[in-house]
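Appendix B, record 7
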Amino acid sequence: MSDERMRQRTDTADRRTVERLVAAWLAETERHDAEAAGEAREGWERDALTERAAQDLATWVTARVTDTGFTEDEGPYVAGEVRITPADKDTVHAWLRAHGHGV
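Structure tokens (predicted):
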């Protein structure tokens, strides 16, 4: 597979990860602060999150990592509505940086 084709597949997978986690983040935010969620949703739909929303997303995804990669004996499993791995967190942070946000 060519490097370009591999990059396209990675970009598509990364975008799906970001979309999945943004949907969960917006749903949770909406339960706690409908106005902030509405502003964030508008920014997301325009592909222009505000810096505040970007920082909130980065913090949220970090705090919600549910799959720590540890076994039961090594460390805790964090319960959550969606499965979020450390790699998912890194993907969201990279996506935010690629869109000009300081994460």
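Remarks on this record: The chain has one domain: 3-98. The chain has a mean pLDDT of 85.
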